[in-house]
Amino acid sequence: MYTGKSVKRVDAFDKVTGRTRYTDDLCDRSAYIAKVLHSTIAHGKVLKIDTSEAEKIPGVVKILTCFDLKEKHYFPTAGHPWSTDPGHQDVADRLILTDTVRFYGDDIAAVVAEDEVAASQALRLIKVEYEEYPFVLDVQEAMKDGAPQLHEAFPNNILKHTRISNGDYEKAIQEPGLVKVEGWYDTPTVQHCHIENFICYTEQVNGRIHVVSSTQIPHIVRRVVAQALGIDWGLVRVEKPYIGGGFGNKQDVLYEPLCAWLTLQTGGHLVKLDVSREETFVCNRVRHAIRSHIVSWVRPDGTYAARKLECFSDQGAYASHGHSICAKGAGSFPQLYPCENVEVDAYTIFTNKPAAGAMRGYGIPQAMWAVESHTEEVAAVIGEDPLVFRRRNLMPVGYEDGFSKNKLYTDSFNQCLDKAMEAIDYKRKFAEYQNQTGDVRRGIGMAVFWYNTAVWPISLESSSCRMVLNQDGSFQLQLGETEIGQGADTAFSQMAADVVGVPLEKVHIVSCQDTDVTPFGTGAYASRQTYVAGFAIRQTGLLLKEKILDYAHELTRMPVYNLDIKDGNIVRTTDGQALMSLAELATEALYSLSDSRHITAESTYQIKSNAYSFGCTIAEVEVDIPLCKVKLLNVVNAHDAGTLINPALAEAQVHGGMSMGIGYGLSEKLIFDPKTGRALNNNLLDYKLSTFMDHPHLQALFVENPEPTSAFGTKGLGEPPACSVAPAIRNAIYHATGVAVNEAPVNPHILFKAFTEAGLINDEPKGPSQS
Amino acid sequence: MYDIKALYEAGSVEEAVSLLVEHPEAQIIAGGSDVLVQIREGRRAGVELVSIYGIDALRGICYDEEEAIRIGSLTSFSHIAADPIIQEKFPVLGEAVSLVGGPQIRNIGTIGGNTCNGVTSADSASTLFAWDAVIELTGPDGIRRLPIQEFYIKAGKVDLRPGELQTAILIPKKAYEGYTGRYIKYAMREAMDIANLGCSVNAKLSQDKKTIEDVRIAYGVAGPIPLRAVTAEAAVKGCRTDQKTIDAFGEAVLSDIHPRDSWRASKAFREHIAKVLASRALKESVLRGGGEICE
Predict the structure, then answer these.
(1) What is the mean pLDDT of residues A622-641?
(2) ipTM of model
(3) Pick among A35, A125, A628 to test the B interface (most B CBs inside 10 A)
(4) Which of A146, A281, A466, B222 has its CA 20 to 30 A from that of A758?
């Protein structure tokens, strides 16, 4: 058995020796270089673009502006499975280049040049005339009557509003003796900051468009490039090599359509579009900033009588993943702490800011920030230990979601809390850090999170797999599910080796997806791949095995039911005797003069289930009040992700998510100039991504309750690690100082304001002044 | 791919001077950790560069004939931090430059580049201001020396005349003998960051260690260029090393500094942090000098 073991990553050696090739390494040096001209206003119309000076730069091949886009094919960009029902399709609001500017940084023209220097020089010489419109940056301002409007089809900039109403909230709050707790909670606009910026290159080959892209979703890119160009989908071929991370930003179609169009505008030439870090922050996707308003009505016995959530999600200028994010977060609200009387209003609102899309956690980090900050307040208001309060109110074992049919089969929350508390010595520290005085104080805080794997039943879940047997008994494994740095290829190889019965090194995973040959699959998102690919791998592996054993029956004359494949041998199960090696069988199968067969297996499995993946974070901090600084001393995450396929990779996945959560809680925020709408800190110096030096030792713990619906007992772990870290840190700061900060990130600027308001910092001159 | 018009590499100070005279438009590049970034941003795109990075004579730290500490302008931050003279006589500079960026930047970045860049946030600059550093410049007319406070003219502008390059930074004996200090960098991250405020304090204690005989304090990012807080220095000179003095020192800096409101930090926040840092750095300077904070 390889599943359950921490085998080495199948791509480890090439990656650590620098041998692995990424998109830029693969692109031929003959490529033209494309650079995008971005708008320098936040809202308005492009009136004129003067390219005459720019065209004089030696090496400039062609400059194309929004006015050169003759056929306007509006396209959606979200990396969602396509829906054949028009009512469920993503909003198609993008153009390859636009003359209507909706945010500072919108794409209005592009330069194609022989090299990067010529392209950059030309960009600086292009002159643009605009008609400027007023713009709006705040979600609640954008909803008001009379606010600047971004898209005609969406009055008051409301992309979508959904409502959940369970029980009777208005009646429930009439119950005597209830305590009302109310708060507003804000999360920032942040960016994924994957190490490899988005890059793609395109070329016309025999009349078709060949796209190589750093993407999580090659089959979706194929569809959207075709939609954007207005051509048949089969005319596009997309290849996805190894990529340097994505975290959801590359679960969107980014510049592939523009690059493909530039190829078509330059006679089919190879064109490369390599996005800078500055552009990545503004012109790719960001995480939705969500403002949440929660009202809870609590009984004296510490149970909820009624609850209400309103949340306002900042979509930025274009729909991208749209309301899905806010809806997912809002959907967790009635479930995490179930209550009979709940009202939820979720809004997704356009503003003149960069488009928000998918990002690790998909609305849950925002929701957990609000809910878990609020939970801490509720416990404080009723004077109860926040742990006790949580244990009483959390989703109970046996809870089933009527819509998704997700079920909590085991007591994941309490098991994870117990494990994390023991590891960090929670009880002792919680007691020890009560009622401190002095400049430097310590605190410990927790937060839990709700998450569900995959997207069923909201949209399609299917996985396809192909296995092709080689002469030596090894086989190629192909899947539509993508390796994006998380270790998917390794986990898939482990599963396949176990199902077929071969040594791990006999599984050759084809890491690159090529839409011309790779079985269909929609890609890396929703923490789905280990869960969904498991079904297709198991089904296809059994199919391959059936074909092998059928041939083994021919060769050995033994009945199939007495045969098995073990460790790469055909074994007679009745006495355990190895009758022949799989290599001998495979060679004979290909070259037999009497019965030659190419043994392959391919199948699709449609998944009509998904699974909860729950856990918690506990954080310990030291707060230097005069310096307004928080030092994270310890942090531990505990997860129930079902049976782990590869514990070492699972641990690494949790570490990465925790790191993202640390930045979310303490330092990361994309800031916009209120006067112009321009992003002020769209670089890695001014955007405070946390560094190794800002991290304590990260501890990842697991409770392995096998998921009964899963092919391998496993469930999602890609996104969950990032969901509860920030509110746990916030709650630890609250424990240390008594100051409740409801706006993330809790950086020194926010703490200076909060500590001043709380009287912990007093900058008034000391003593009576003499004048 | 960098947009560079021409690159001239100097093998000696004399050659650098003549290349600079020959190409008056050219800019000096040493480690390149600032210049290359600016070229990439388009601010210095299409420049001519004179590289002085190969001039080994400008590397290293020694005492000169007057026992001043002489730091060659091309000495990297990591070499400064590891240097025995710095560790013995001027450890606070080693501590300050160890807070620049990350290890790669500290290996390539030079103290000459850090100061010639003329930015207020340079981690070495406030400490050099606080220790009365002298800048040595070599040009077509020979060598001239001036106090670092005169070298800085305004934000991004230093007194580097045509054909000149900075060749050394000197700390006179009277400026370091008997002083102990502390630099505190205040930034949003523990690494890879630029200071929101840098505060360098040093003090010389009396024989009995109970009185502050002399104190010097300089800030980065409290104004457009690094500056000395002279009111604060005067306020506690000759005072006892007690908490009252420590507090008074922090309060007094507000008369000297003029930080601004920006999206990076508010004025009120910077002033608050400036006070806290001054008091803490003075306290540590006293403790490092063998003193204690008296009742």
Answers:
(1) 98
(2) 0.96
(3) A628
(4) B222
